[in-house]
Amino acid sequence: MRPMLERRVVVTGVGLVTPLGVGVDKNWEALMAGRSGIGPITRFDASGFPARIAGEVKDFNPEDWIEKRDVKKMDPFIQYAVASAEQAMRQSGFKITDDNADQVGVLIGVGIGGLCTIEEYHKVFMETGLRHITPFFIPKLIGNLAPGQISIRYGARGVNFTATSACASGSHAIGEAYRMIRLGYLDAAITGGSEAAITSLGVGGFAAMRALSTRNEEPEKASRPFDKERDGFVMAEGSAALILEEREAAVARGARIIAEICGYAANSDAYHITSPAPEGRGAAKCMRMCLEDSDLDPNEVDYINAHGTSTEQGDIAETQAVKRVFGER
Would you list the domain boundaries of the chain? Predict the structure, then answer.
């Protein structure tokens, strides 16, 4: 099929599983009330760790969203992804049928994957050998089973893959889904990101990098990007999903349009595995590319969703990048 160019892409559904709650309403209520989802780690004994706080999903019951027999086949990051996708599908009212299934994709960003499952079954293996390794071990932990399980659930037969690019994984998944719809390779997509890596190994790894805040006595004040007294980021978990559709089709079916995606860009610093390029050069270039793709002037932008890692190098480079693009604003 020859792609059609420059189609408009809209958001018609949203789903959330976060430390603030399950569902858009709970998250919005908590945000408006200024509540934090950060607290002491309860998933494992973190008493010997320098960082003992995280954003854990608290009120999630997988059986509210997934058949009981299937829960055991999914690491928590997959469970979160399926739950957020179900919420988004319900809100959008979008239906996948045999007629449109080939043009509906699923792209979910996952940075690490099933670390919970890896830790659990490494312990089982060391204690009992192969006898008690579940046949679901690999399907539970690999990143592409987040979009895979979602596509099976709804019968979406279009492009299906996981974007894995650390903190940008979810953004890249959404951006690539948008681009595919815009160019006519898809008509709709279920997209977003999911992660569940609050484990002893996950927290320990970031602690070893000295990337985490150790403000353990003030968990609600620990994440403080761009603050002079910042001392690192706070790990969290959860998932968000969006339903993207070609605008004319969404309007034709009477969908409620929540937002429109107008542009997307992605690049690389090609500089260092953890440190940003000096003066935020790569990030500034990426923002300029996105504005150009959107046909927007910097003066038309009212909100910037910052990375805001609360790390010394990261926040400085990001601030410099924003100033390069938006100047005095």
Answer: 9-261, 264-329
| Model confidence pLDDT, tens digit, residues 159-218 | 999 999 999 999 999 999 999 999 999 999 999 999 999 999 999 999 999 999 999 999
Domain 9-261 bears CATH identifier 3.40.47.10: yes
Query: For 36-77, what is each residue's pLDDT tens digit?
Result: 999 999 999 999 999 999 999 999 999 999 999 999 999 999
Please give the Cα distance from 61 to 6 (Å, whole number).
41
Q: What is the dihedral of CA 61, 62, 65, 66, to 10 degrees?
A: -150
CA distances from 218 to 40, 45, 78 (A): 10, 19, 31
Residue 6: burial class (beta carbons within 10 Å; 0-12, 13-18, 19+) = exposed
Alpha carbon 175 to its chain centroid, in Å, reads 12
The alpha-carbon radius of gyration of the chain (Å, integer) is 20
Identical fold for domains 9-261 and 264-329, yes or no, is yes
Q: Map tokens 């602690």 to a residue.
A: 207
Exposed / middle / buried, residue 270 (Cβ in 10 Å: 0-12, 13-18, 19+): exposed
